[in-house]
Write a structure and sequence with these properties.
Blueprint: H1 3-14, H2 17-36, H3 41-50, H4 59-68, H5 75-79, H6 84-97, H7 102-110, H8 120-131, H9 140-149, H10 151-168, H11 175-188
Helix pairs in contact: 1-2, 2-3, 2-8, 3-7, 3-8, 6-7, 7-8, 8-10, 9-10, 10-11
Bound molecules: fe (ii) ion (2 copies).
The site of one fe (ii) ion has 7 residues, from helix 6.
């Protein structure tokens, strides 16, 4: 399947122009970030285009599709099934688009909550999803520019910002996000002795 064919299948699969346009913008930004930071642009583009395959599913459908695949469902996911669109999306990318590359599937699975262990491609997709130009919030452009100069600094800021946002909205922060924050703090801690 060529990339153009894949895009047209994703468009039909999503069934919504708005979500498809988001995926195209995420794929473009992920591609540019990968080029800038020496990662595979082809992998970044694929991850971007396929990251939200299950985003428009209802909570009920997400739970049912995950159960049908015997995927473990954590308590916090059962409480907020929308979070499952990321992990289910990785399954759909494999089943429908034949993606077997573990780095692409990992980036798709982690794009919403992040995780303790984040590869550079995981971070690129996480940032591209959060910073694509269709989103409008204060500081987006600055953070996008920062992502080109320092992937790590942008990741740190976006992650901390997402936790702050959840707390302000009184939404429970997903455990993998807390783990991701803890991992950043571990890295920042000076090595003693
Ligand atoms: Fe998503
Ligand atoms: Fe997305």
């Amino acid at each position: 399947m060529t990339f153009a064919q894949l895009c047209s299948n994703v468009r039909a699969d999503l069934g919504q122009t708005h979500r498809y346009a988001h995926c195209v913008r995420v794929a473009r930004l992920a591609d540019r970030l990968a080029l800038r930071h020496g990662e595979s642009t082809a992998h970044a583009r694929l991850a971007g285009m396929l990251h939200d395959l299950a985003r428009l599913y209802s909570g009920e459908r997400l739970l049912a599709e995950c159960r049908a695949r015997s995927m473990p469902i954590a308590e916090y996911e059962a409480a907020s099934p929308i979070l499952l669109h990321a992990r289910l999306g990785a399954y759909l990318a494999r089943e429908r688009y034949g993606i077997t590359d573990a780095s692409i599937l990992s980036a798709i699975a982690k794009h919403t909550t992040a995780d303790r262990h984040m590869s550079r491609l995981d971070i690129i997709l996480y940032l591209a999803d959060a910073l694509e130009p269709g989103r409008s919030y204060e500081g987006r452009e600055r953070l996008e520019a920062l992502a080109f100069s320092s992937l790590e600094e942008a990741y740190h800021e976006v992650l901390v910002g997402s936790v702050d946002y959840c707390r302000r909205m009184e939404v429970t922060v997903a455990p993998p996000t807390l783990e991701a924050i803890a991992a950043l703090k571990d890295q920042a801690r000076p090595i003693l002795g």
